[in-house]
């Protein structure tokens, strides 16, 4: 099933979304004010047009109303991003995803009804920071302001021990929700307390950030 998307703003972020959606076989309308940006996406997106998204008449002419999900990836021009989002909302777009530049921008976007607000630079910075703290941290996903899920390589100290031996829940207040086993290439969901950790195993751990932070330091 083909779904229709529009990406407004073809910088690195919007451009990358546009490429990936197109490669996945989705219909994408790509929009930017800059001619060279639009030319870059002519052969990638289903349609690429030069247009100013802050112009309501232009949005209507493009038939944006019929598009299911619009991604607003206008960067530095916060005013244009807010105005565009507001008009898309007024036009009744089903789903609007917007890239925010900062926390104030995010607050405004949420107030005017953006369905999803993303902070790619901030979030990627945070994820990378966690993998820098410990080489064992493979990924970090924020659940809320103070809870996360992390993917960690089993540290040397863990190999051959069971979850009971390590007593991660009592010692660090974190829960191991799954273990990816390298040996049989399987994911053990909700592992038993008697599960032994082998070399190469990857643990998926959920917990409060302060607890995960102590656990990360133990892994170093
Ligand atoms: P990135 O970091 O993703 O490369 P950025 O956050 O630095 O991008 P900008 O380069 O400021 O963001 O903007 C992204 C794109 O949005 C640019 O190509 C710009 O031309 C386009 N853009 C800005 N304003 C509008 C507008 N009103 N309508 C359509 N496109 C716009
Ligand atoms: P981001 O998308 O992460 O916000 P960016 O990729 O658009 O950033 P810039 O805004 O050009 O990149 O640069 C990021 C920061 O690096 C800016 O705060 C800028 O002041 C700083 N910076 C740029 N050049 C230098 C330099 N030579 N020495 C120190 N700081 C620099
Ligand atoms: Ca940027």
UniProtKB/TrEMBL annotation:
Annotated ranges, domain RCK C-terminal: 135-220
Domain named RCK N-terminal: residues: 2-118
SUPFAM superfamilies reported in the protein's UniProt record: NAD(P)-binding Rossmann-fold domains (SSF51735), TrkA C-terminal domain-like (SSF116726)
Organism ancestry: Bacteria, Bacillati, Bacillota, Bacilli, Bacillales
GO molecular function, one term: monoatomic cation transmembrane transporter activity
Organism this protein belongs to: Paraliobacillus ryukyuensis
Gene3D superfamilies for the chain: NAD(P)-binding Rossmann-like Domain, Regulator of K+ conductance, C-terminal domain
Residues spanning the signal sequence: none
GO biological process, one term: potassium ion transport
Any Pfam family: TrkA_C
Name of the protein described by the UniProt record: Trk system potassium uptake protein TrkA
């Amino acid at each position: 099933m083909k779904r229709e998307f529009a990406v407004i703003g073809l910088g690195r972020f919007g451009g990358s979304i546009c490429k990936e959606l197109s490669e996945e076989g989705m219909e994408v309308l790509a929009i930017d004010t800059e001619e060279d940006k639009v030319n870059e996406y002519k052969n990638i997106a289903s349609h690429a047009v030069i247009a100013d998204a802050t112009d309501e008449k232009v949005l209507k002419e493009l038939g944006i109303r019929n598009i299911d999900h619009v991604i607003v990836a206008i960067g530095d021009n916060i005013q244009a991003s807010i105005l565009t989002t507001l008009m898309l909302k007024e036009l009744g777009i089903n789903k609007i995803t917007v890239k925010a530049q900062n926390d104030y921008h995010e607050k405004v976007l949420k107030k005017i009804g953006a369905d999803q607000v993303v902070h790619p630079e901030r979030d990627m910075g945070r994820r990378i920071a966690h993998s820098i703290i410990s080489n064992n941290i493979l990924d970090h996903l924020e659940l809320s302001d103070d809870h996360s899920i992390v993917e960690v390589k089993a540290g040397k100290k863990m190999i051959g021990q069971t979850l009971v031996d390590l007593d991660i829940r009592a010692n660090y207040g974190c829960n191991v929700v799954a273990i990816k086993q390298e040996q049989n290439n399987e994911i053990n969901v909700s592992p038993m307390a008697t599960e032994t950790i082998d070399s190469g195993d990857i643990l998926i751990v959920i917990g409060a950030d302060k607890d995960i932070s102590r656990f990360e330091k133990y892994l170093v």
